[in-house]
Amino acid sequence: MYDQQAQQMGYGTANTSGQGAAATVPAEIQGLNWGGLMLSWIWGIGNSTWIALLSFVPFIGVFVPFYLLFKGNELAWKNKQWASVEAFKATQRKWAIAGLVILVIAVVLGVLGSVIGAAAGTAANQ
To answer: What is the mean pLDDT of residues 104-108?
Structure first.
């Protein structure tokens, strides 16, 4: 849609994704990036956003997912070539869903582990 509007307005192709600092970030993609928050370094590799690997650095790694939450869309647009804004949005939506699925699985396993651990502790005390 962004590319079509730009062409209609006489700007030619407006897709500057993958051009680093020279890339113009479309307004439609600005916003929160939940995939970057929940899957930080994995998301970073998939989106050619190598700063996400700072997740492995002690102390700094705590802040990286939050940086990616707020700046992830911009970084991914600038660091990787995308076919269109729509393709970018569809891909980032998949990352967000994958992150949510992993979060839900982790919570379910955590609750299950707590319940089983509590039951085993109660049985051992009797």
So the answer is: 97
Helix, strand, or coil here: 117? helix
DSSP 3-state of 80: coil
Tokens representing 74 are: 């911009």
Cα 17 → chain centroid:
17
pLDDT of residue 4: 54
Total-model pTM: 0.78
Rounding to the nearest 10 degrees, give the CA dihedral for residues 81, 87, 91, 93: 140
Cα–Cα distance for residue pair 92/122, rounded to 1 Å = 45
CA pair distance 99, 83, nearest whole angstrom: 23
Contact 101, 49 (CB under 8 A): no
Conformational region of residue 81, where left means phi above 0, alpha means psi within -120 to 50, and beta covers everything else: beta
AA letter at 70: F
Tokens standing for 9?
A: 């307005």
Q: Could you tell me the residue ranges of all domains in the chain? A: 23-125
Extract the tokens encoding 111: 């609750």
